[in-house]
Design a protein that fits this description.
This protein is of the alpha+beta class. Helices cover about 40% and strands about 30% of the residues. Strand 5 and strand 6 form a beta hairpin.
């Protein structure tokens, strides 16, 4: 009887040890998130997304040169979103991968829209200044 009990305990211990081993680590399988694009500013690579799991927001910047790959309103996105990092994200709605940079995570809707406006305005102002500088350079050359 003692041998059967010892064998049973040993078998359960071995099963628990091998059962806890997985091929993928915790962070590789559990941090994939889904989000929905709730707003974007035309002419800028900035979009506002809302995460499904906790309903918080993030301002993301598309790193694609082709504007056809920039996420649009109501697009569903899936991937690993880390603030301050560029990641390859799958656009479920459009059916292709895109490169996104998570600029800032924001907890409230009002702050999220303010942040989106801030980054979009900064982008458009910088773009306009660069265009004005290049035009003045052209006039000097002529």
């Amino acid at each position: 009887m003692k041998k059967i009990f010892t064998f049973s305990v040993l078998a359960v211990a071995i099963a628990m040890i091998f059962g806890s081993c997985t091929k993928r680590g915790y962070y590789e399988q559990d941090d994939i998130e889904r989000a929905t694009v709730i707003d974007y500013v035309n002419g800028t690579p900035y979009s506002l997304i809302q995460y499904d799991y906790d309903r918080t927001y993030a301002v993301v910047e598309s790193m694609e040169y082709d504007t056809q790959y920039w996420p649009e309103e109501y697009d569903r996105l899936e991937g690993r979103f880390y603030e301050g990092q560029q990641r390859r994200i799958y656009n479920i709605t459009a059916g292709f991968y895109i490169n996104l940079f998570v600029v800032e995570n924001v907890s409230s809707k009002a702050d999220a829209f303010d942040a989106l406006d801030y980054y979009a305005h900064k982008y458009l102002t910088t773009k306009a200044n660069n265009k004005a500088i290049s035009q003045s350079d052209k006039r000097r050359i002529q």
